[in-house]
Design a protein that fits this description.
The chain has 12 helices and 3 strands; from the N terminus they run αββαααβαααααααα. By secondary structure, it is mainly α. This is BTB domain-containing protein.
């Protein structure tokens, strides 16, 4: 029954009947139902109930979300279903889900980023974690700390971009690496002393 309900609401996206609001995004106009968006997103609910200009003209310009990401967000908003998305899209979708307070979608994006950390996306994951989720940030920093070749990671565009945009966060990562190396060094020193005890 729930799957049928999800399908029915999902089909509304493709049906222009009774749509009463327009999302303008990068030159595209996407017609939607205010009642659906309001029921799912506290941000849209507030917008529609207020005296904001958007509520008066029944449209809003969305300038910080790409059309493809917006459509994936709307698919979830209508049906509760999440289309497949790439690692790159996960960060953009996380931003949009956070903006419109779609907590389930936000958590799906966070889990996707946690499970697919790589040399190519780890610094983006740290950036998004710093903005939206401490657990994601911790997991991504731990990935860097235990990577074993920070010199190699420092040559990636992800590190260069993060270092330029957020030196404080870059310093936090560097400090975590140094702390890890010191702990390993102390552990090795204690291990060596225990092994050599009795020989001197």
């Amino acid at each position: 029954m729930l799957s049928q309900l999800s399908e029915n609401y999902g089909n509304l996206m493709d049906n222009d009947d009774l749509k009463d609001f327009v999302l303008k995004c990068a030159g595209e106009e996407i017609r939607v139902h205010k009642c659906i968006l309001a029921a799912r997103s506290p941000v849209f609910a507030t917008m529609f109930k207020s005296d904001m200009a958007e509520a008066q003209v029944n449209s809003v310009d969305i300038v910080d979300v790409e059309p493809g990401i917006l459509r994936k967000l709307l698919k979830f908003t209508y049906s509760g279903q999440i289309d497949d998305f790439t690692n790159k899209e996960a960060g953009d979708l996380l931003y949009a889900a956070n903006k419109y307070q779609l907590d389930i979608l936000k958590e799906e994006c966070i889990q996707n980023l946690k499970q697919n950390l790589s040399d190519k996306n780890v610094f983006d994951a740290i950036k998004f974690g710093d903005m939206f989720d401490q657990g994601l940030k911790d997991r991504a920093i731990d990935f860097v700390v235990k990577h074993g070749s920070f010199a190699q990671l420092r040559e990636t565009e992800g590190w260069k971009s993060l270092h330029a945009a957020n030196p404080t966060l870059a310093m936090e990562i560097t400090t975590a690496i140094v702390d890890h190396m010191q702990k390993r060094g102390n552990a090795l020193t204690r291990q060596t002393l225990s092994l050599t005890r009795g020989y001197f």
